[in-house]
Amino acid sequence: MTTAPGGADNGVLAQVSRVRKPIASLCHGPWVLASARCLQGRVLTSWPGVRDDMVNAEATWLDQEVVRDDNLVTSRGPQDLVPFLRAITELFSGSETMQQDSERQIASSPQRNAPPQLALSTRKWLPRPSFRITVGIGALMLGLRY
Hints:
Helices cover about 40% and strands about 10% of the residues.
């Protein structure tokens, strides 16, 4: 299993990818793989906000919970954690029950026109500024400006 924290040595990741060791990545993790130049011709998913970077790294990006391409399993983010864990369990156990997405689709999914549902659902827990606070911040900004 390869764990790649931020700042990981790209040479190690490239070598792991070349020898086809299992790699699991979710959310913004594929950015590290893109930096290591491990994504050319691969099929994957990631957080939708980094889709263009994955496509620019010459990967095929799919808007799905989990995508498996040979030794690589990717997921969009924390909202897909249960299917991601199921997929990496299958990958590391050597099970071939999960259909590889590289056989199904050869073009990237389109960029989303709306934010992910997870991002929208978290907004309901954020405090909403009152009119008085908004005016106070505006007055403070005007006072700092002059």
